[in-house]
Amino acid sequence: MTKINKGFPADFLWGGATAANQLEGAYDVDGKGLSSADMVAYVPKDKRTQDHAIEISSERIQQILSGEFEARFPKREGIDFYHRYKEDIALFAEMGFKVFRLSINWARIFPNGDDAQPNEAGLQFYDNVFDELHKYGIEPLVTLAHYETPLGLTLKYNGWASREVVGFFTTYAETVFKRYKDKVKYWITFNEINMMTLSPFTGGGVVIDKSENKLQTMYQALHHQFVASALATKLVHEIIPGSQMGCMLARMESYAHTCNPEDVLKNQQENQMNLYFTDVHARGEYPRYMQRYFDENNVVLHVEADDAETLRNNTVDYVAFSYYMTLTVSTSPEGERAEGNLFGGVKNPYLKASDWGWQIDPIGLRVMLNTMYDRYRKPLFIVENGLGAYDKVEADGSIHDTYRIDYHRQHIQQMKEAIKDGVELIGYTSWGPIDLVSMSTSEMSKRYGFIYVDLDDEGNGSLARSRKDSFHWYKEVIASNGEKL
C-alpha cells in the first residue's frame, strides 16, 4: 500500500501566479504587437452595466483602433513589471518562492501572431526574466496563452475560430520551447480554457457578435485549442526532456441547493460542463455526455482525420486549476443570486463572501481536490487562489491585511487535509502575489497581493512596492513548508 503524506511533500512548489497582460505594461515597447487584452477599457464601477465587461464587439475594436473610442486601457500599463522585474523577483525571493507562474505574451514574440520570424527583443526579455528567477533558485511555471491572443489573428482570422491559428500557435510554442529549453521545465498551454464559453474574445480572440450559431463557433474554437494543446504537449516532450505540460481550468465546484433530485441532477450536469475541458486534456477524448449536448444544441464540430489520435496520444502530465469559490445550483427561479469569478449561482447561506461577492469556501477546495484526483489520477497543481479585497494603507505605510491571511490559512489547511486524503498535490501559486490589474474589471482597488503597489483605479500613483502583513506571514508558511500557519 502506498504511504500517504501527513504534510506537504519536501519538494512542494510554493509561489505566486500572474499574467503578462495584468502586470507587464510596455504594451508598445520593443516591437510588441497589440493583443486582445489591450482592447479592454476601464469602466468605473458606478458606470458598469455588468460585472464582466470584457466581451468586445468587432465594431468596438474598430472604434478603438481608429481613435473614435477614447478610454483608459489599464492592461496596457499593468504595474510596469517589464521595467521592474528585478525588483519584483527579489521580493518574491525574499518570501522564499520555489516557483513563479507567469505567462509569455504571444504578441511580444510574434507581434501579429502569424509573422514569419519571431521578435528577438521579446524573446530576450523573457530570457532576462528567467535568468533572474534562476539567480534566486525560483522555478518558472510558464503559461503559453493567458488571455493574450495577438490582435492580428482576430482581425485576419477571427482568432481561434479559424483552424489556421492552430499552426500559428504551434509555431509560437516550438519557438519558445527551443529558446527556453534549458530554463523552463513546467508549462501550461491555455489559462482557464473554459473562458471560451464565457467570453470568446478574452479566451481566444474570437469576435462572436456576428456569428449565426454562437455555440458552434465557441465549441469549434475550443476544439482548435484542444488540438493545439495536444500538439504543444507533444512538442515540449520532444524538445525538453523531463518537461511537464499541464492544462488549466477555472474550476467551479458546485453543490445542489437542496436534496430535490432535480437540483441534484442539475448540479451533476453543471459539474460535467465544467469538467469537460479537463476530461479532453487529461483523458484524451471527448466525454460521451458532451455528444448529447452537441446534438441538442445543433453543434457539429469539424474534426480532421488525425485529431482523435492527437488528443489520445498527447494527454497532459498534470492538471492545474484556479479555485476561488464554489457555487450552489437550483432548478428554482427563486433564491438570491451570488456573484463570482466568471460564473454566478444561488447564494449559499453557510458561506461568507468577499468584498466582490465571491463566496469563500475553504472546505470546498478539499472536496474539489479529492474529486479531481479521483477522476484523473494525475498530479494536481493549484495555480490560482486568493482574495480580492480593499486594502487600507495606514499613516506609517503598513497594511494589516488579516482577512487575506485568514483566507489563505484556511485554504492551505484544507490542502493539507486533501494530501492526507491521498491527493497528489505538487504545488500552490497564490493569485496575484503582487497587486496587479484585475482581469474582469481592470481595477487596481481589487487587490490580491502580499506586495502593495501604489497605483489606483485611475492610473495615479508612484508604482512603489511595499510589504503587507501577509508578505511576512506567507514567508513563514513557505519556510515551514506549510506547518506554520
From TrEMBL:
A GO CC annotation given for this chain: cytosol
GO biological process assignments: carbohydrate catabolic process
Keywords on record: Glycosidase, Hydrolase
Active site: 384 (nucleophile)
Matching Pfam families: Glyco_hydro_1
Domain of life from the UniProt record: Bacteria
SUPFAM superfamilies hit by this protein: (Trans)glycosidases
GO molecular function: beta-glucosidase activity
Family label: Belongs to the glycosyl hydrolase 1 family.
Protein name: Amygdalase
